[in-house]
Every structure is written in structure tokens, then in C-alpha cells.
């Protein structure tokens, strides 16, 4: 039942000790505030990592080469190593159980010109599978296809950035020609890349055309793969490691590279990198939980200390109440009422301020690896109720101690 006298008594006690109640509530509110902020930034870190890996295929593997760093079989270090078309064919045939898509990438050094205007953009010779590997979307036209590869077609797919910077926005780019060095390439499509404008600072042509027209022979600068999906993330990482090991061993054998030469063949696995980042994010989240909970515990300890002081100050009053017939649980309820009220009010205040702060500035926060920090409201609300329970527990022991005081002892208290 609602007891108006109990509430009046509570507010009278708060009015008499405004500063003490304020400081107690502040410690509790700051605990919830700090916990929610830390959890929010932990989620923002996970969002940032997810955003980084969503820009390209999550299961992609990149392979490239550097000069050898060790002597092997009479060959001196410092040899240049080139990836070739047959290295792609080997992976597609011998390691097909691992692969979903593959593409060699041949970089071309050439000037891009359109109607007398030149632009500085990258030119890459790629295969049709590269669209999935790089996770690009077509806004106009189509991507490179197998027919383009087979015929060494002089066709080009430009990015939305190139289209915007080199052409009139009212102009239909499809069917127009870009001049790459002295060769004319027909525009067949316009793409956008989820990685942003940095990834759009390039155009794509068929790899076979790049090798034939620009004297690339059968060489590629790097090779990109995507691996078959696996229902279990850890199993997918394990398969990625197996593929990387098998393919790296093959490349070292065909290029006569020392098995312990770590720099000649370089491999980047997005899955392994993602696992490292996600593990780091999980560890950071656990650390944030630890710091936030410790802060809340400090606030609850403060509540408990204040309740001890309250009991000490009201010892004679408690003695009089008991002498007049007050039951022990009535005394416990009186102390708990103040403890729960202060904890709940402060906890919800901290929650409202922290959630409001995230609503106002969260979506605009975008720094490296932190995107839209936020926290699940249900999680935060649950923490507040846990805090209220902890506050009740903190107030219970001083209240129980007060309830066990004999009236005669309490009346003698000075």
C-alpha cells in the first residue's frame, strides 16, 4: 500500500541532508553514466570493425610478392618474384575445394584522357570475379565479363568518382570512349564501391587486355580470392589458414624461394584479420564492463556507507519506534525505502543523460574504427535494475543491524 507518511518522512530526511543525498546520488548516477558510455563506445568499436570489413568480401585473400630476403639453392637474395596467370590457374584447379572466386590484378601505368581533359586515376586489369571480391555495385551498364576477357576487348568500367569528375553529370557515359595512353577504351559501366571514394579512384579493364595491350605479358601484380562460406566462423578461419599455407608453399616451390623466407610471398587473409579485430573488440568490451561495474560498485558502497551513517544518526529514533511497538521489518523497510529511492532516482538520471547524449552526438561520431557508438536500451535498463537491487542490498545490512538493536540500548545512545 502507498503510505503517505512514509514518503513524507523520506523527503524530510532528504531535505535535512541535501548535500549528503546529492553526493550519494551523484556517485550512483556517474557509475551508470560511465558504464553506458563505455558500453556505447565498445559497440561503436565493433560497428567500426564491421564497417571496415563490409567494404570488401569478408572471406577475401590477397597475395602479392616482394624481393626474396634469403639465399636458397645457390640463388642470391634480392630476386624479384612475379605472380603469373598459371598461378591463378593452379589455385582454381588444385585448391578448388577452398575457393569461391578468383582474379588476378594487373596494374597499368597510363594516363586517362577524356575529350582533352586528363585525370590521375589507377588502371587495373581484372577478371569478372573481381566485382564480388571488391564488393562493387553497378549504377550504370555492366561489369567486365568472360567475353571481354576472351576477345581482349578494349572496354573500361569507370567509378562514380571518375564519372563525376571527368564528365558532365547530364551526360550518358555508356558508349563514350576514354583514352588510356594512346588506346581508346569504350565505357561499358559505372560502379560504386562500399569502401568509399578512396576505392573509387580507379577504372577497370579486362586483365587479358591489360597484359596484351600494355605489355604485361602473363604477369599479375597480385591475386585475389574469396573462400567458400562456412557456417562456423572459427571453422572458416581454420580453412582460410589451410588455404594460405598450401598456396604459399606452392608459390615458394615454383619460384625457388626458401621455405623460411617470410617476405617474398605475402598473404593477407581478411578472415584472420577479422578474427584478430573481433577478439580485440571483445576484450575491450570486457574491459569496459569491468571498469563500469567497478564504478557502480563504488557507488553502491557509497550508498551502504551513507545508510550506516543514517542508522547511526537515527539510533535513538529507532529505539523509540521499537519501544512503541514497531516491528523489525518496519524498521528495515524505513531504511530500505531511502536507500532504494536514492539509488533508483540516481540510476535512472544517469541512464537518461547517457542515452540522451548518444542520441544527440552518437550518429555524428566517426573516427578510426568507431562508428555510431550506441548501447542497447534493454541492456542499460537491466543494469539500472541490477543497480537498484544492489542499492537495496547495500541498505539492507545497515537496516537489519538497526532492527536488531534493543530499545533500551538505542535509547541510551548519545
UniProtKB/TrEMBL annotation:
It comes from the Bacteria. Keywords: Cell membrane, Membrane, Transmembrane, Transmembrane helix. One of its GO terms (molecular function) is transmembrane transporter activity. Its main location: membrane. Residues 290-407 form the ABC3 transporter permease C-terminal domain. The chain crosses the membrane at residues 21-41, 286-311, 331-357, 377-397. Belongs to the ABC-4 integral membrane protein family. This is FtsX-like permease family protein.
